[in-house]
Amino acid sequence: MTTAIDPTPDQPVHKTITVQASPERAFQVFTGGIDTWWPRTHHIGQSAMTKTVIECYAGGRCYSEQADGTECVWGSILAWEPPHRFVMAWQIDQQWKYQPDPAQSSEVEVRFTPEEGGATRVDLEHRHFNRLGAGADTMRTAVASPMGWAGLLRGFAVQVD
Amino acid sequence: MQTYQALQLDALGDATRRAVLERLLAGPLPVGEIARDFAISRPAISQHLRILKQAKLVTDRSAGTRRLYQLNPEGFDAIRSYCDRFWTQALAAFKEQVENPIPKEK
Q1: pLDDT over 70 for what percent of chain A?
Q2: Which residues of B touch A1 (CB under 8 A)?
Q3: Which chain B residues contact residue A132 at CB under 8 A?
Q4: Across all residues in chain A, what is the average pLDDT?
């Protein structure tokens, strides 16, 4: 028997920030320089993260290097148009594990638009969360997995820190 | 946004309410049937459902003379809400690094 719950609609996350730098520099720091700013706490490895890497070309991987010597892939570059925009598959599933299939992953698009005074507006859209599964299955996973209760609490801690 | 998150955390911080949510995993139920599984009174269950509803973790609708409660998929979209908070934090760190580069240690 199916329940009366509708499939989860796509509700992208939108973020915008303006930085005092050229689009070229903003694009370079965001991608090639990602290790200089990416939060050290955000990775899917079993040990501490030592480095975050984006391979700067279409088809390139996004991965982390861990203290135990392993590499953890968590994404891939779907579109690469420096210094204007890039799109990456965000290959992390509901269980906080690597999802090899980009078609079952959410994705992140980042656009860099020049503004007056040499600034750059950075628009980020994280979308297609609904590809991770819809309706009851999603909820069952969300309730049962560490990303359910524990994830909410952890996310909240990050927010108030 | 903050208020909504805080409401969810409060709602999830109670063992009875977590048990009610787990009970609803199987599908929509009226309050009477939920209450049957618990040692507390039906009005107490209604109160818990009200809190879960305010936190957007459950929704309700009428079906004939009964009111059915069901899980709200949006409220359980943990990955999405995690990413929403994550990007706020990450972009602030990105802006800081673009504008005031800190040389890498090691």
Answers
A1: 75
A2: 27
A3: 79
A4: 80
Identify the H or E element spanning A106.
Answer: strand A106-114
Categorize the per-residue pLDDT at A13 as very low, low, confident or very high, splitting at 50, 70 and 90.
confident
Q: How far apart are CA B25 and CA B18, in angstroms?
A: 11
Chain B residue set in contact with A, beta carbons under 8 Å: 2, 5, 8-9, 12, 18, 21-22, 25, 27-28, 70-71, 73-74, 76-99, 101-102, 104
Q: Domain total for chain A?
A: 1
Please tell me which of the candidates B8, B76, B93 has its beta carbon nearest to residue A139: B76
ipTM above 0.85, yes or no: no
- Whole-angstrom distance, CA of residue A82 vs CA of residue A94: 31
Instruction: Answer whether residue A150 is part of any domain.
Output: no
Q: Among A92, A139, A156, whose Cβ lies nearest the Cβ of B9?
A: A156
Backbone angles phi, psi at A30, to 5 degrees: -65, -40
CATH number of the domain residue A36 falls in: 3.30.530.20
Residues 6+ apart with CB under 8 A from A156: B5, B9, B85
pLDDT digits (tens, 9 = 90+) for B22-66: 788 778 899 999 999 899 999 999 999 999 998 888 899 998 888
CATH number at residue B83: 1.10.10.10
Considering only residues A103 and A42, tell me which one the structure prediction assigns the higher pLDDT. Answer: A103
